Protein 1
Amino acid sequence: MAKAKSDLATIAAVAQLLGVVVAVAALFFAREVFIPLALGLLLSFLLSPIVDRLHRWGVPNVAAVVATAALAFLFLAGLFSLLGRELTTLVGQLPEYRHELIDKARGVAGLTGGVGGSLDELAEDVSEAIEEGTELEPGESEADDAEDPSAEAASSPTLIQKWTDRLLPEPLTQEKPDNDGSSLKRPLYVKTVQPNAPLASWATTAGTVLGPLATAGLVSVFALFLLIYRDDLRDRIIAVVSHGDYVTTTEAMNEAGERISRYLIAQTMINVVYGILLAVGLSLIGALMTDDGFPNAVLWGVLAIFLRYIPYIGPTAAAIFPSAIALAVFPGYSVFLTVVVLIATMELICNNIVEPWLYGSSTGISAIAVITAAVFWGWLWGPVGLLLSTPLTVCLVVAGRYVPSFRILTTLLGEDVQIKPGMRFYQRLLAGDELRASELLRERIESQGFPATCDDVIVPALKRIRLDHDADHLNEADANRLFALAGGLIADCKTMTGDPADEVDASLDDAPGLPTMIGCTSHHFSETLVLNLLRIGGGGTYHLNVIDDDVMPDDAGRTIKDHDPPLVVIALLPKGGFPQTRYLCQAIRDEGYTGPIIVSALGRFKNYDRLFVGLRKAGATYMTTTFTQTQNKMESLLRRHARPACHMSSVAAAETSP
């Protein structure tokens, strides 16, 4: 039976792996369809909050979508027209910067020793090539140029030809060509050169330009239809995917949509402000440190707005362009260093203050997941994949939160590791890392309090040690080592809060007026650690004396009868222990103890009522299932026990007074 289950698990794992491979292959080979669809979906997420706001103001749905799309189109058209104008200006100004480029190349050549000569020659070649393209040779006229342009091109080798001739010189040969016309056996080879075909050239150019335009149009159509029919598409997707679980599907879709919309809106706000500040900063640097101003400052601001949508690579590219211009255009390095300091300061403020404040937990993915997703989607879909990497990864993480089959994605890519604090503490114990385990306890006690830390961290770790030992994952020596390590950390819990009130509580522990209770273990020595937690939690409120775990139930009952405490608490750490607890309760009652008995069974039980009835029949008064509940019940019973004592003492004092 076990082998059959193992085979089924293997088949299921292989099927899931094949499904992933098929999905990735489909995304790759059908990218011409999926990329416009994904971009349209991304654009609809970005514009949907504006459409919803207009719709709430009473604007009809179609009119709200058209108005939003028109505003977005005008905004993008303005940005692209500005970008095109600035690029045209930059291309026209590039020849003016050649002298500074040559000087910088020669300056680097003087600093690089052995390779300086090569860099110096490179600078001379660059200078000669630029001058040859802009000046005429002496004795030449424009008419001669116009008469024989092919001869000029043949006599003036290009810069690339010069370099290739140096690296790969043409071998000298005395052989005559095969078709030199010197004899009948060597006829001249004649080839008819077709004139330029304007139609073919126009078709090639049109194909190059119309391809991106067609994609942009398809993206726009997808976005418009997704916005107009968003409610209908939502209902259809829920009906197909939910399989009757409408609550989970609706929550998953709402979370994915909200996270992506918040991320895109926040990213757009940050990028626009960043681009404006960069353009203003570069303009100020040009006005204060140069005579002619910083070239094309608006261009670098607009480029930064668009490039910063691409994780990690985009901000780097947005920083390289203006830095390179500052290095190439202006003499010296002062302007370049100022630009670098400006961009570095903006990036530090943006990454460490602005983005955490605006994003918060909007994406829910870790930094490593962002890098991994950028690499994967960039490999799959190219530059568009880099743009879509974060939103698509957000969808996968949200799917992992609600679909058990995808839960591994949330664990690998999610921002918060899906490991409970108790298991993290247990891992520290297994590794023998007492320092980090102590830090974890201290942080939890300071943030959540001692009772919550016991319920969420310490008690689950103790139960896990028991469970792994019973399953033979831990031998006896390892289990005892872990219990000893946990016991030492529990003993240090009183000093972990760093609160000056702890010193007062420590002094109150020895006060003689505090009530003294008795604690017992049910069936395992690890329950002594739970009683130690109760002792620490009751500091300044009560004393707790613990009966050793090797004492027999009848002897424990006689000890309790002799001391007659206000209450007795029995610690029970599952699994097991209920028969022993019932027997211990019966032994305590048989010895004549009449006070309350609390059974602290720390765990969740489906048959709670049946277990409680069995304990009540054996003599138990209460059954608690958490540390916090146990401590509250003990303090409540102590307060109830203290009121009759105070009343009796006041009556006795009144009777003795004259």
Note: The chain is about 70% helix and 5% strand.
Protein 2
Amino acid sequence: MIPPGGNSAARWLTWMLAGAALLFWIAVLATGKDWRDALHILEGEAKVKSQDRVIAYAHWGLYWGCLLDAVLCTGLGATARWWAAAVRPGQAVKVARLSRIGWVALFTILVLAGTVRWLRLDLSLYNDEAHNFRRYFSGYFQQRTDGTSRWREPSWGETLWLNQVGNNSTPFSVSARLSHAAALRLTGAPVGTVHEVGLRFPSWVAGLVTLVVVWILLRRLFPGSAACWWGMLLLGLHPWHVRYSSEARGYAFMMLGVALCLYFALRAWQENRWRWWVGMGLAQFFALWSFSGTLYYLVAFNGLFLLGWVWRVWKGRQGWGQLWGPLFGMVVGAMFAVPLLLPMLPQLLKALQNNVSIHGHMGLGWWLDLAGCLVAGVRWVDSDPGNPVNLALGRFLSQQPWIWVGVGSVGLLAALGSVALVRAGGVARVILVAGPLAVLGGWLAMGRQGNFIHLWYLLHVLTGWCVVLGAAGSFGNRHLWQRAAVGFLLTMVLTGWLWMGLRYHHLGKEDLRGVAQAVPAGAFHAAAYSDVDIYDRGVAIIEQTSELDPLIARARQENRVFYISFSRKIADPEFEKMFKRIERGGEFEKIAILWGQEEGQFTHYLYKLR
């Protein structure tokens, strides 16, 4: 444990930084030759296996990351006696002990939130989850030239460092891989089986831990009020958080990192102790490691935090040496991030250039969709009006105008919570402004390059948003009518969110497993624009339209009924001709439509040859 401050803290930090510097210099010496060999691999024109290229990225990034950290630790350690002793810690801020009824309430909220999320864990994987299942978590069956297949499991190097399309959340990938392997061992399932609950269990745990962190945060921000309970309930039932803390993606880990950052920042602001500054930096590193897009939020948060801290130091005439606390905390986070994230940087830059899904315009519809996600957990604009089960706030408002009452309730709570945070001052004001500033900064930075920010890339603002709404619960301590009015608004919002969250229970983004289950055993199954092969090992994936007729002939030769499933992920003219032939040519009979969510590309169509 690092002492609070003074010469004792300076000695501790000197020894800790010296030890870290020694380890980093040893790592630099040990990887000195590896990074040069890796550079030859990365710059060479020869074709290299995926896992070899990933290891080359790792050697290159680890060497330069460790070198930078070694220089930083050496410099900081050599000068710690001057800057560390200047930080003067404040008094520890204590909160009241929780009563027995409070513990029961805390447990009840966790059970409710956990149940709403658990109901979604066994839904079918969708496209991004299916990609990560193949490349990071489990593996896939690779076809040999002789027609047989072998199970191709990703190396641990690929789980840790591969990020060619920018969607590998390393801490989640590692935990999901271990959790999935444990689930297969416990159930005795064979290799290649998809165990959805095993994959998503780490997200479920991270989501519930985030609720507890937000509860502790609000309990310190507004002691003696109901804000902590309302904030925990709001995040626990927010449909956007329910969804992404029950899917095999890394966003639940990222939101946990953001929540920890806010909590440690509050403790550091209140007490100015080294342990909280270091905790803040480590939490920021964890959030960034979980999802690199969190950078926009962290830049906004750290910039505002430093401005507020400088103002506090200047106003209180405490001495500019007090700036070393937040600066050191941020440097600690950066020192962990550099060697672990640097190997992914070249891959991320290539993904930004080549990934067509992030190229586009962010106009009014994008802003409306973001508002819909924050207000109701779903997009505002109904981008798939022909889908009878698509969840869109605009559709709900047009069909049932009374839902505007719920939208207005969220707006009133946001206004009341903003007032409460401004009155609280300090970190509370930073939390209030950091989210909108991060969204605006990301919109400007990406928009200038002609890039598009997917809405789920902005989940880093959700924790702070629910803190703002929960802060409204601090009103009404003196007047019963105020407490009743705020309680009514919060209850209205929570009821609507619970209803929406329960609808997510049976509405996944894409029903790949349903497609596989709809094809009878023994039938010949072909698929186009689909990841159904993670559930159906025998499916024939159509890569070119010319493959359709030979597959039909093969099915007839084998005396098997021919089924074909497809989705419209890309408006390819040749494939559209094939789809029209299937739908209108009279050769095929429609068997099922498996509706997806948000976009038409996630709906699958199943036909049978007559």
Note: DSSP finds 23 helices and seven strands in the chain.
